Amino acid sequence: MNALQKTLAIIAFLALASQAVRHAYRLWLEPRGSALDKYDQPLKDEIARAASLEELLGRYDKVRKEADEKRKELAKQDTKNRDYARERETEPFKSELSLSEAITDWEKKSAEVRELRFYWLVGLVFFILGLFAYRKVSRWFGLTLLITAFSEFIYWTSPTVFGSGSREFDRLLANKLAFTVVSLILLLAVIWLNRIFVDKTEAS
């Protein structure tokens, strides 16, 4: 059993440590600019500076009204000669699409933050039960609960693949980094309390 615990502890440590490094890199060190940003920079700056979803919605509402007025004007033209694909690349339709995507991304990241906090707390419950069971009930049953706990920790703090450039995305990264570090501390506590890496011959 000790060999299994060592193997699982090493795997969990590698997963959490690598995730912590990745989150820190994306939050503080990853370049977020592009050589093409200068062509769309004013709108991108507005989206990046938005402090809340309501602020984005206010900007979208204004652009949406302009786009609706433009659609009414274009509807009066000859539909046979209209280039719909090209129209979407012009203002105000281009800004409308960018803001719409930014709002959708913000909502998704907010939902991810809520899920992360909820399921990490679920993992914490399994962690506490696992420690108790390992000491008082059965080492195998306790280990099973601890495996479940760290599976929750690792899965829900895993790196976010898509998204960048908004404060809500940064908030998600900061939450994932914080919960990953706490998970690492809990893992080290389990290793120390259960004396997983203690050489039995030395201990005796």
Q: What do you see in this structure?
A:
The protein has 204 residues and is an all-alpha fold. It is built from 8 helices and no strands. The mean pLDDT is 87. It is 79% helix and 0% strand. It has one domain. The radius of gyration is 25 Å and the shape is elongated. Helix 1 (2-29) packs antiparallel against helix 7, helix 5 (93-136) runs parallel beside helix 7 (167-193) and helix 6 packs antiparallel against helix 7.
Give the tags.
single chain; 204 residues; mainly alpha; 79% helix; elongated
Structure summary:
With 204 residues, the protein is mainly α. Helices cover 79% and strands 0% of the residues.
Radius of gyration: 25 Å
What fraction of the residues are assigned to beta strands by DSSP? under 5%
**Low-pLDDT residue intervals, each spanning 5 or more residues:** none
Number of domains: 1
Structural class: mainly alpha
Which SSEs are present, and which pair or pack?
Elements lengths: L1 H28 L7 H13 L3 H23 L8 H4 L5 H44 L2 H18 L10 H27 L6 H4 L1
Helix pairs in contact: 1-6, 1-7, 3-5, 5-6, 5-7, 6-7
